[in-house]
Amino acid sequence: MAHWTFLTHHAHVLLAIARDADATVEAIAASVGITARSAVSILNDLEATGYLERERRGRRNHYLLHLDRPLRHPSNAAHTVGELIAALRDLD
Questions:
Q1: The predicted structure's pLDDT at residue 38
Q2: Structural domain boundaries in the chain
Q3: Closest listed residue to residue 28, CA positions, set 41, 44, 12
Q4: Which strand (E) or helix (H) includes residue 53?
Q5: pLDDT digits over 10-61, tens only?
Q6: Residue closest to 79 by CA, chosen among 67, 87, 71, 91
Q7: d(CA 5, CA 1)
Q8: CATH code for the part of the protein at 9-89
Q9: What phi, psi does 61 have (nearest 5°)?
Q10: What is the number of alpha carbons within 13 Å of residue 92 lying toward its C-beta?
Q11: How many whole angstroms separate alpha carbon 38 and alpha carbon 10?
């Protein structure tokens, strides 16, 4: 049986940040099951496309999610990141 999931790693990173906006890259990567390098790449993607902002707090980052941003796939674009997080947050 093939190993696959319904959500992308990008979605899992968003959910990890929604749970803890002060999480380290290593903690985000561990919760998603990816390398820290992959997590950094995804964080860069999300920041470049306006889904999150990073704010330095001392030696660490704090992440601000833009919950009003639409989902990227055309068939889901009527829904927001906030709706996705709200729907899945209860499942944690």
A1: 98
A2: 9-89
A3: 12
A4: strand 52-57
A5: 999 999 999 999 999 999 999 999 999 999 999 999 999 999 999 999 999 9
A6: 71
A7: 12
A8: 1.10.10.10
A9: -100, 145
A10: 15
A11: 10
